């Protein structure tokens, strides 16, 4: 299998962020976005292709987890938190 | 799942027993060890700031004829190691000290306690519900013999936990639950597979999060204690005045807490305190320099 290209990694990154935006739960949404950014930033200098492959696979798994949880969350959505309403703080 | 839990604390998977939660694990550890060795050992040492389930387990053992020493804590919430050493008796079977307190967040000197217990060949149990996944806990490095783990405290499912029971040197305990012999005979009952899988996954995630956090200190989030009008016994133990203990509010911060939420909560707190103070005659007195403790309240 060909090594993951920079373009592929970036596609994954964008897909993860896009999917995370769909979380109806404030805390899950903010955590996912923050965590994705931190993880990609932390690993941006990795050169070893095996390690990159491993991380890409983990990212793909996480994308599926997020997708599942977003879907379930939307089925059982609750009210917005007070902090999500504009005009607070 | 067993391996995932074991990896988080540096244990062997055979040393992990699934339970219904840290409350059951604590009950198992304290009552189980005490009762197994009761023919020769009838003394247990614990602290005044332990979780209710630990204190209650100890109290029920007292009714069975055991003797318990409840070590006091200093103003900083930590036990005095000298007092711990002095508390040992020839018939002490167990020391139980929680790793991180759920109400005030202090970390007990687990490493030192482990050394002291190992030197005296007394089993050391720690309720690590609040600590697991937040601070590194290696049962061999810290000389821990029994450890209670809570599922929902590490963002796993509610209704599941685990207890670590050392095999070398072997810790024996009398099971609380009799039955089909599951979990090495120590905890009969069908293991709830979905919950165990959830706990394992939570442990794995916790390990990854801990590694990526590095040296950042984490404020622990906690929530236990039933609704009661009594002030917190933990706050009383660290010497807080009655009125302070009665009027305290606990804010929990965890993996999913955002800066915005903290800022918002702080703002609201300030706003409401100001509002309440405007209404309070006591506040007026404080501003006039009167010491509230010197007030003689008249009877009605």
From TrEMBL, chain B:
A Pfam family assignment: Aminotran_5
UniProt-recorded Gene Ontology molecular function terms: cysteine desulfurase activity; iron-sulfur cluster binding; metal ion binding
GO biological process, one term: iron-sulfur cluster assembly
Record carries keyword Endoplasmic reticulum: no
Enzyme's top EC category: transferase
EC number(s) recorded for this UniProt protein: 2.8.1.7
Cofactor list: pyridoxal 5'-phosphate
GO annotation, cellular component aspect: cytosol; mitochondrion; nucleus
Keywords assigned: Iron, Iron-sulfur, Metal-binding, Pyridoxal phosphate, Transferase
UniProt xrefs under SUPFAM superfamilies: PLP-dependent transferases
Residue ranges constituting the Aminotransferase class V domain according to the UniProt record: 2-252
Family from the record: Belongs to the class-V pyridoxal-phosphate-dependent aminotransferase family. NifS/IscS subfamily.
Name the record gives this protein: cysteine desulfurase
Gene this protein is translated from: NFS1
């Amino acid at each position: 299998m060909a090594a993951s290209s920079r373009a592929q990694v970036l596609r994954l990154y964008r897909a993860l962020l896009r999917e995370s935006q769909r979380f109806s739960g404030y805390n899950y949404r903010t955590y996912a976005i923050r965590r994705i950014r931190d993880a990609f930033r932390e690993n941006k200098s990795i050169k070893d292709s095996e390690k990159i492959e491993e991380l890409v696979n983990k990212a793909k798994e996480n994308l599926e987890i997020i997708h599942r949880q977003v879907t379930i969350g939307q089925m059982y959505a609750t009210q917005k938190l007070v902090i999500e309403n504009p005009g607070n703080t | 799942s067993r391996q995932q839990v074991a990896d988080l604390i540096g244990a062997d998977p055979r040393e992990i027993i699934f339970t219904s939660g840290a409350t059951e694990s604590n009950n198992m550890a304290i009552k189980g060890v005490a009762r197994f060795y009761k023919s020769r050992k009838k003394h247990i040492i614990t602290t005044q700031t332990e979780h209710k389930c630990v204190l209650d387990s100890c109290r029920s053992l007292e009714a069975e004829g055991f003797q318990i020493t409840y070590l006091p804590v200093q103003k900083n919430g930590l036990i005095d190691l000298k007092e711990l050493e002095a508390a040992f008796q020839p018939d002490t079977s167990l020391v139980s000290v929680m790793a991180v307190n759920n109400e005030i967040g202090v970390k007990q000197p687990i490493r030192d306690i482990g050394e002291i217990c190992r030197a005296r060949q007394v089993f050391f149990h720690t309720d690590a519900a609040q600590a697991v996944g937040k601070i590194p806990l290696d049962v061999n490095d810290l000389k821990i013999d029994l450890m209670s783990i809570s599922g929902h405290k590490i963002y796993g499912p509610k209704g599941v936990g685990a207890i670590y029971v050392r095999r070398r040197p072997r810790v024996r305990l009398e099971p609380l639950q009799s039955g089909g012999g599951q979990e090495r005979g120590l905890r009969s009952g069908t293991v709830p597979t979905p919950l165990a899988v959830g706990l394992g996954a939570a442990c794995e995630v916790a390990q990854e999060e801990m590694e990526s956090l590095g040296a950042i200190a984490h404020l622990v989030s906690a929530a236990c204690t039933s609704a009661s009008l009594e002030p917190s016994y933990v706050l009383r133990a660290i010497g807080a005045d009655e009125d302070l203990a009665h009027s305290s509010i606990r804010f929990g911060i965890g993996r999913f807490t955002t800066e915005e939420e903290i800022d918002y909560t702080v703002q609201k707190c300030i706003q409401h305190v100001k509002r309440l103070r405007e209404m309070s005659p006591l506040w007026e007195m404080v501003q006039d320099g009167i010491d509230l403790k010197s007030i003689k309240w008249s009877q009605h």
